[in-house]
Input
Amino acid sequence: MRHLLSVDDLTRADVDGLMELTDSFLEVSRREIAKVPALRGKTVVSLFYEDSTRTRISFETAAKRLSADTMTFGVKGSSHAKGESLRDTVQTIEAMGIDALVVRHQAAGAPHRVADWVDAAVCNAGDGRHEHPTQALLDMYTLRQHLGSLEGARVAIVGDVLNSRVARSDVKALDLLGAAVTLVAPPTLLPSSLAGWPVVVHHDLDDVLPELDVVILLRIQRERQDEGLFPSLREYALRYGLTAERAERLPEHALVMHPGPMNRGVEIDPDVADGPRSTITEQVANGVAVRMAVLFSLLGSGAPVAA
Amino acid sequence: MHPPALVVRGGEIVDATGARRADVRVVDGEVVEVAAGLDAAGARVLDAGGCVVVPGLVDLHTHLREPGDELAETIESGARAAALGGYTAVVAMPNTEPALDDATVVGSVLARGAHAPCDVVAAAAITKGRRGEELAPMGELHDLGVRVFTDDGFCVADAGVMRRAMEYSRALPGAVVAQHAEDAALARGGHMHEGEWSSRLGIPGRPEAAESVVIARDLELAKLTGARLHVLHLSSAEGVRLVREAKEVGVRVTAEVTPHHLVLTDAACASYDPAFKVHPPLRTSSDVEALRAGLADGTIDAIATDHAPHSPETKDRPFEEAPPGMLGLETALGLVLTELVEPGHLTLADALAALSWRPAAIAGLDDHGGPVGVGALAHLCVIDPSAAWEVDASALASRSRNTPFHGRKLTGRVRHTLLAGEPVVVDGEAQR
Output
């Protein structure tokens, strides 16, 4: 694997391989000294043009547990504030001698452009409304832990699909692993065209819930209300929020996921977020191991992981 | 001292009157003789063997960037690019900094263009500062020779302002109000055509309706006012339909299309290369088909480049953060010949009409685009239709490099360009 820019870059065998690696790195993470020398001498730079807490820390933790040297380039206090272009910035960083760039950017395709400009491996940590492939991988890993296989699993993705990079990556990954995906949202929060998307669309959450194995809730950003995409957060919560009452319509075994950060009381009620169906904290824990697997695949020697 | 006589020898003339094999003798900038087998003794000879000799091309839509963004282009560099592309006249768009919205700025552009290797005429803004509010001094600008009025880059959103501009233009002979038809509210935040590809790529889209709602409104205003309307860079099938129907009922409307909208689709944006970002955006293959059909049936009058240079410093950014626009002057003819004429979508005569005499008529450029005949100013372009070449962004005369056609193989290229008899391009090389 040269770069990880999109779930499109992955075959099913790639995903299976990453999941196996994740198993072993999850075991490492549970040790007293949660560290292996797999990437000793490698340098991983996190280049974050958007505020992010969990993804940035997750990648940094993953790199450190693999013994890589890590640096973080945040947008604040950086050359970007002085008007330096993305291209100049990444070429400057690369000139310092680095092995991988983990890129979070507000514009779709920015990591693809970076990959054209540098020799280092590039991992997309979220680009605009396009993709967030490691989030999809950690979601798939978490689902496999619970369901064994995703073949035939019925999964709904609920909320702001239009503006969600998680949704784009999850749809592709779920399809790759054989799940059946339903998108549930008001029409204003869906892409104008879903040609080529392996999904069905519903506008009524209550109708869909009894048929599901998994419901993935997307974060509703408050500024979307200002754009007029829906009348109010209150109305959104009324129609699409997963309240405790609504969650009772789910089958007994069904899981509730959220990529975080959550708006409690909007797309998800606190009781559901903290309830037994919720995989939300597991997702975070698995995220570190999945990112270890990705970084190791991008930078590792190919030798087995040191026990 | 008179420059020596010049003979363009061995070509086939194609102009609005038809095609014929003849040499052309030029003295003091004028065509003095058109006949087969002219005696060239004592004259400079420009070989046109195997070539077509046509009236110089006329671009209705050129961004020369001067004043304000001379890093991207200057009047001189843009005019040189134009000459190399076969153009003898370009209409410079007014979205400069400051905007071409008063006589002083327009006068300075015309003065700087006076010695350029291509005639430079100015379009002027419809409204002061292109803000869409108060009318620019259209009459005073008309006195300076301005015929095309447009806030291009911005759409005149206020229907009342657009109505007044069109009404006012009726007192200005030859004047035309030209609209960048994209409704700002519908297009806001979008960076490419809204559809299958924008959804897949996660790039916010600009819907086709952003264009068609403005065209529909402006056609109604053209009916109301009786004024001339020109639709800039028509890009959608629906826009073509609206213009076609308006022409059928006698509305005074003309329209142009760019080579890139005739050749490329939104699928090109999958590379995330901002070279493919342009407003209005590249659309679908069915829009491309409709634009080609509209050109072939005369709904669309002209092919205009929308040559929009951006320096690498500003263009080479992530797609959503890059400015819209692409180069066009040096590739337009080759693209039209290769992609439209050669496959049979358009006859050579129709292509040349759309590149030369029809745009000349729209812009009121009486010296350009006319038949190659005795007494005419020798604004000529000699095209080698069989010359095969590959577009090389780094070899362009423009100061910018933002062509979406880098690496594309084309057949058909400008061999010589004559500006009022002066060979400004000879054998594909700019002479100044």
